[in-house]
């Protein structure tokens, strides 16, 4: 059942789900929901849905989809917008008549793993529908990848069937049953679990590859261990591996040449930010680098390719110009601009993933919080060129201690601050933004010189401009390649990757020498 909003129409997530369903040969039922909205436009939405089916290469049978109209809030569905508004029977009747009965095959046990989760008692739980044969606990099975190569062999320790929302142990599962199986350690989504004599894997769609990666490191700063209790690399590695067990979109691998660093790859900035925030709330301390896109190389031309996303933004008409200007500077291409009613416009872009890093807070600021952005991975395309993300330098603390109000007041003409008086700082920590395009080391511990002489106006209270609040999303988008975000349960700090100023200058000279040598 493809559920579409009668006002918004097809969204990026609609396109993503529909593309998967059509590739699997399914014949969707289109349900136009929220038809009770005052700005509903069901006739236009039906045409947009048909165009989406055609753009995704649906066959003639799939294009002849049945349509229902209704309101889930009011609890009705009907074949006509002005039809019977009493109940959902029209939907149930259409499911019975339109959806074919599941086909079970004869032969040995085969099952395609469609979801995975980590259970603290049973280990990996792989869920799917038994395609053929039967399965019982303690049965010897093997798993095959999409190409039919064997991954592992093992013994099924538990077979669980579903009773409503709960899983219950079962002594046997037959073809057609949806079950969860425990006992295999390496098998994942899109792999085939089967009897030992089976040699052919079930056809499955590949898992979408990650498009963004970040370096997770231990917190090696002077304040490490003061706010969190999970700081060791071993504990961080175990937590990341546990997350990857139940999340097929994440890939964890050690960073080459660094013992206490891990490269974590995912499908977007939001997914990685949620993981970091979850770990932070669990008591972890760590540092992370700037998000980097996962690049590819065209095998035929050798051209560098980068991930590009389809971006749909619904915004008030008065702010659409600012949105187009900002995204164009981030190498985005405007594909469509149309009115969506009620003084709002819908903008459709193709934008490089790296150009969208940190854009959401900027979008909300530019549109006074009225814009709604949806993103979907589109394809890998040729590299679009450099994107200038930050034009200013930073203010770096040259000493360790607690920040003093008088010192911050004296530095206000250098640029806005990220810290308040009394906050702990250390050498190499970024305390503010420099108004010029170079970094500047400053002393935020310098207090006011006191004398026993009084003068008019000399003891006036210091008036400070409020510091810029640092959210996780803003911090990740702000840092450069030579900087890190330090994350603890209580604080988010910015710092240089190399804290010692002399070592930092030597590393900078070495990079400049390498760049000059490469240019020659």
Describe this structure in words.
- The chain has 520 residues and is an alpha+beta fold.
- It has 5 domains: 2-98, P-loop containing nucleotide triphosphate hydrolases (Rossmann fold), CATH 3.40.50; 110-194, Elongation Factor Tu (Ef-tu), domain 3 (Beta Barrel); 212-292, Alpha-Beta Plaits (2-Layer Sandwich); 296-382, Alpha-Beta Plaits (2-Layer Sandwich); 393-509, bipa protein (OB fold (Dihydrolipoamide Acetyltransferase, E2P), Beta Barrel).
- Strand 23 (333-341) and strand 24 (344-352) form a beta hairpin.
Structural class: alpha+beta
Instruction: Estimate what percentage of residues fall within beta strands.
Output: 25-35%
DSSP helix count?
A: 11
- In CATH terms, the superfamily of the largest domain is bipa protein
CATH-derived topology of the largest domain: OB fold (Dihydrolipoamide Acetyltransferase, E2P)
State the total count of DSSP E strands. Answer: 32
Short description:
The chain is built from eleven helices and 32 strands. By secondary structure, it is an alpha+beta fold.
List keywords for this structure.
520 residues; alpha+beta; Rossmann fold; Elongation Factor Tu (Ef-tu), domain 3; Alpha-Beta Plaits; 10-stranded mixed β-sheet; 9-stranded antiparallel β-sheet; 11 helices; 32 strands; 22% helix; globular
Ordered list of secondary-structure elements with their pairings:
Layout: E1 2-5, H1 12-23, E2 30-33, H2 42-55, H3 60-63, E3 67-71, E4 76-78, H4 89-98, E5 110-112, E6 115-119, E7 123-132, E8 134-135, E9 140-144, E10 150-155, E11 158-163, E12 166-169, E13 173-174, E14 178-182, E15 192-194, E16 212-218, H5 233-245, E17 251-254, E18 261-266, H6 269-281, E19 286-288, E20 292-293, E21 296-297, E22 304-316, H7 320-329, E23 333-341, E24 344-352, H8 359-366, E25 372-382, E26 393-397, E27 401-402, H9 405-410, E28 424-425, E29 429-434, E30 440-442, H10 472-478, E31 483-487, E32 492-496, H11 501-519
């Amino acid at each position: 059942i493809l559920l579409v909003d009668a006002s918004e129409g097809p969204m990026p997530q609609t396109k993503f789900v529909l593309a998967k369903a059509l590739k699997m040969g399914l014949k969707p039922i289109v349900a136009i929901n929220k038809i009770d909205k005052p700005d509903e436009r069901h006739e236009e939405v039906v045409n947009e849905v048909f165009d989406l089916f055609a753009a995704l290469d649906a066959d003639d049978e799939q294009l002849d989809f049945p349509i229902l109209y209704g309101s889930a809030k009011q609890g009705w569905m009907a074949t006509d917008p002005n039809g019977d508004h009493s109940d959902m029977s029209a939907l149930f009747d259409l499911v019975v008549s339109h959806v074919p009965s599941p086909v079970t095959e004869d032969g040995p046990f085969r099952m395609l793993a469609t979801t995975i989760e980590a259970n603290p008692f049973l280990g990996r739980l792989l869920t799917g529908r038994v395609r053929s044969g039967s399965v019982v606990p303690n049965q010897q099975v093997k798993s095959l990848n999409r190409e039919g190569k064997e991954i592992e062999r093992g013994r099924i320790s538990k077979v669980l069937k579903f009773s409503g929302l709960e899983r219950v142990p079962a002594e046997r599962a037959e073809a057609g049953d949806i079950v969860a199986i425990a006992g295999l350690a390496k098998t994942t989504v899109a792999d085939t679990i089967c009897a030992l004599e089976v040699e052919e894997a079930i056809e499955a769609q590949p898992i979408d590859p990650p498009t963004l990666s970040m370096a997770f490191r231990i917190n090696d700063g002077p304040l490490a261990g003061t706010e969190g209790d999970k700081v060791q690399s071993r504990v961080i590695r175990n937590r990341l591996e546990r997350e990857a067990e139940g999340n097929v979109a994440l890939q964890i691998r050690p960073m080459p040449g660094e013992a206490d660093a891990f490269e974590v790859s995912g499908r977007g900035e939001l997914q990685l930010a949620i993981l970091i925030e979850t770990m932070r709330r669990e008591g972890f301390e760590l540092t992370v680098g700037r998000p980097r896109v996962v690049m590819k190389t065209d095998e035929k031309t050798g051209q560098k390719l980068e991930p590009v996303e389809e971006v749909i933004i619904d915004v008030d008409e008065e702010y659409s110009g600012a949105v187009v200007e900002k995204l164009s500077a981030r190498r985005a291409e405007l594909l469509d601009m149309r009115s969506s009613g009620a003084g709002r416009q819908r903008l459709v872009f193709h934008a490089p993933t790296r150009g969208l890093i940190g854009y959401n807070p900027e979008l909300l600021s530019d549109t006074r919080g009225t814009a709604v952005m949806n993103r979907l991975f589109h394809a890998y395309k040729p590299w679009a060129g450099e994107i200038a993300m930050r034009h200013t330098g930073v203010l770096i603390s040259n000493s360790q201690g607690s920040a003093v109000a008088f010192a911050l007041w004296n530095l206000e003409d250098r640029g806005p601050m990220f810290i308040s008086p009394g906050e702990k700082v250390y050498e190499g920590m970024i305390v503010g933004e420099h108004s010029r395009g170079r970094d500047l080391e400053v002393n935020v511990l310098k207090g006011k010189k006191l004398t026993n002489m009084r003068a008019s106006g000399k003891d006036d209270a210091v008036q400070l401009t409020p510091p810029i609040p640092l959210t996780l999303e803003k911090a990740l988008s702000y840092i450069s390649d030579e900087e890190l975000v330090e994350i603890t349960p209580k604080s988010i700090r910015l710092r240089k990757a190399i804290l010692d100023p002399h070592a930092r200058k030597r590393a900078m000279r070495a990079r400049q020498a390498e760049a000059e040598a490469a240019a020659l």
